[in-house]
Automatic annotation (TrEMBL):
Alphabetical keyword list: DNA damage, DNA repair
Gene3D superfamilies, sorted: 1.20.5.170
A Pfam family it matches: Swi5
Region Disordered, residue ranges: 1-40
Family: Belongs to the SWI5/SAE3 family.
Upper taxonomic lineage: Eukaryota, Fungi, Dikarya, Ascomycota, Pezizomycotina
Biological process per Gene Ontology, one example term: meiotic DNA recombinase assembly involved in reciprocal meiotic recombination
Protein name: Swi5-domain-containing protein
Gene Ontology cellular component list: Swi5-Sfr1 complex; Swi5-Swi2 complex
Polar residues bias locations: 1-31
Length: 119
């Protein structure tokens, strides 16, 4: 609701907890509506602060449950990929030797051992 320029605006020194009736005056309908809005907004703020605290607590719990720091996990995955690639290279070399000894193509030996073309 917009106020007209002739209406006095509440000052920062007015106590937000005292209604006009507590100050010895009868509150106007606008003042009552404004006070209701303030109470509603304050309740919303309190609710949002409570939700924020709850979510922050949940985030802390989830972080505590993580097994490792993400950078440690990434380093481990890189090491495992490196190990895999070395083993794969050795296996391909051995299959190449078997294929050469048999006089067949390496892909035939790979299929025999269950290793696809993309493995």
């Amino acid at each position: 609701m917009l106020s007209s320029p002739n209406q006095p605006q509440p000052s920062q020194h007015d106590s937000p907890h005292l209604t006009s009736s507590e100050n010895g005056q009868n509150p106007s309908p606008e003042q009552l509506q404004r006070e209701r809005k303030v109470k509603t907004l304050q309740a919303s703020i309190d609710d949002l602060q409570s939700q924020t605290q709850q979510l922050e607590g949940e985030i802390a719990e989830v972080k505590a449950k993580l097994k490792n720091d993400p950078s440690i996990t990434v380093k481990r995955h890189i090491r495992l990929l490196h190990d895999y690639n070395e083993i794969k290279d050795v296996a391909q070399g051995l299959m190449g030797l078997i294929a050469e000894a048999r006089g067949v193509r390496q892909i035939e030996v790979q299929r025999e051992f269950g290793a696809g073309e993309k493995d």
